[in-house]
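Input for the complex:
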Amino acid sequence: MVDSAPHPSKGGVCVNLTKMDQISELNPEDFTVAVEAGVTRKALNKYLRGNGLWFPVDPGADASLCGMVATAASGTNAVRYGTMRQNVLNLQVVLPDGRILHTAGQSRRPRKSAAGYHLTGLFVGSEGTLGFITQATLRLHGIPEATVAAICAFPNIRAAVDSTVQVLQAGLPIARIEFLDEVMMGACNRYSGLSYAELPTLFLEFHGSQQSVEEQVGATEAILQSNGGSDFAWAREPEARGQLWAARHNAWYAALALRPGKKGYSTDVCVPLSRLPEVLLETKKDLLDSNLTGPLVGHVGDGNFHCLLVLDPEDVEEKERAAEFAKRLGRRALAVGGTCTGEHGIGLGKRQLLREEVGEVALSTMRQIKMALDPKNLMNPGKVL
Amino acid sequence: MVDSAPHPSKGGVCVNLTKMDQISELNPEDFTVAVEAGVTRKALNKYLRGNGLWFPVDPGADASLCGMVATAASGTNAVRYGTMRQNVLNLQVVLPDGRILHTAGQSRRPRKSAAGYHLTGLFVGSEGTLGFITQATLRLHGIPEATVAAICAFPNIRAAVDSTVQVLQAGLPIARIEFLDEVMMGACNRYSGLSYAELPTLFLEFHGSQQSVEEQVGATEAILQSNGGSDFAWAREPEARGQLWAARHNAWYAALALRPGKKGYSTDVCVPLSRLPEVLLETKKDLLDSNLTGPLVGHVGDGNFHCLLVLDPEDVEEKERAAEFAKRLGRRALAVGGTCTGEHGIGLGKRQLLREEVGEVALSTMRQIKMALDPKNLMNPGKVL
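Predicted:
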């Protein structure tokens, strides 16, 4: 379980950058833009309206883009458009000694570069431990001519995951492919007054030209049906798409509504796709055995899923049970070649799992880098390493 | 100009890893494979035959994949499939002190991760200065159902580049879009006995389903023609595609044949697409003014182009003129927000340009990392920094 709230763990200073909210250097022909630390994902996409461009990385919440840089965020569109790692071209960083670093050099924005160490890549996912990220130059994408949303239920988890693998193997450029387990679907039905089948379900989205999207939908539907998919439905118009996807978009709140007044905590493992069915099944069994409420929702195209645990924060014993469950889940992912965190980061709570995941040599290499760039340990001390 | 040959600049030891040629851990469902240091691109793609998978990063030469990791290589397919940066999941590295590092942890291969510093990204493009890369876990892609190659000539450079921008803005998932200037086309005609129009020319390739590829070809042809494109030709069958692309594939040798017995040196700038026409035109004028032979060939979808200088290695004055030209070209790219190296790396020859490109703060940050990981400066000393 991640405790990713940006509060200092041992006292210290919290710096609020939300008022650094300028968007600049929009170059539509080059698909690039620069955003300051306080600019959120939705604010950027609103700004881009009329240019035919958008920034697709979507972690759900309307997070600040530089915060998304700091945690290497991703979300529902990553299967097609990549995570933050693939969509950041340059960063402005205030280093611990006060100097201003431009990770790719000031004002640089080529689509690719082989000039020296990849500092941009190092700062993406550094969780505030190497400096303040004050501006990010981002890579934009063209808004697709057509978008179609779809939904399909499956008799079991394996059928849903097998369908995903086959869609990817067929080279279908799917934009979103999200998994909700039957518990999550039940929660969504109750929360949003819907009547979906309470079965393992895939939510999908297709981007492209009208013709290409129709072809993708047809080819995908054939794959889903060959795996026993049922209740296949799709929608083209924005409003209808919104309705279809409402269940997925409200999943977090639907989970919370399972136990009104309680608190949510999300796990975040990511595993190779071929190992996903067994990890999902073992996790569901563990949830039952642990007597925990935790519907599952996954960015299944990336092998990444979240268990939305709903807990009583006053119940120390339950919190302890959940922490043990989350640790077992992390180790289950590690045992099959996966990671304890696909997109949320290490923070405080996953430091032990990070050690198990990368090993002593990698951990000491990370510490050498931290020591070299922040010798006084001023930046978010105690986090990650 | 890059001198990227792996020879020690001040004496020292050269380690030959070509016999480490094992391919392992192929997981077709997960689109991953591991290759040792000596495995080349073609050897891997031969190994993958029959699995419906391929590794698309193609720098032209049959380079070793771990060498491609070290230089952050890319090439003709990068506009669709990304560079090495987007296609490496994990690295095994022998560190300067002899310890073995797994940048993402041993045997880990999730499609994405937010676990600690992105060491994998740091070692991609490190040019041998941080350790020996002995194994790489790579991301594979499905072989497209259909491939179509095409070629189109333009009245001028701007028309060719404008076409490229419009193809990308239309969201067409083009796999390759390569530019050859009229000098290069003339050289190719002579070298390969062809009769293409000696005009600025785009070579294109489309990947996808039969239907999607046909749609892409149609939409692209319309864009090219609206920009004055002529002599549009396309080919579907492997042999015909090979013939169509022969000019592009033999460009290096065709350039060398312009001055038999002389040596080739390639420049490698990469600039934002919108600035590419002016940089190409100024570079062509500079070539003329400098009395140098240097046909142009570019990965135009990425804004990256090479000037294939053909020089007399015995002519000290000409070499000096070429070095000055290359430096001006690097600075021309820097002046418009680009990089002095899109895919070849810094090596020895571009260290001054790197300093100008990234600035003192970034350079000192890179040096701090180098000092932290290789305090005795054992690894490829004198290169990059």
